[in-house]
Amino acid sequence: MRASVVIRVRDESAALAELLDRLARQSMEHEVVVVDSGSADGSPGVARARGARLLELPAAEFTFGRALNLGAAACAAPVIVALSAHAFPRDDEWLERMAAALDVPEAACAFGPSHDWAGMPLAAPVRQDEALARAHAEWGYSNGAGAFRAELWRERGFREDLPGTEDREWALWALSRGLVCVLDPALAVDHDHSRDSLRASFARYAREARGYGMYLEDLPPYGARAAVGEWWSDQGWHRSRARARLDPRRAARLAGKWWGRKR
Question: Among residues 187, 209, 230, which one ends one of the domains?
Answer without folding.
Answer: 187
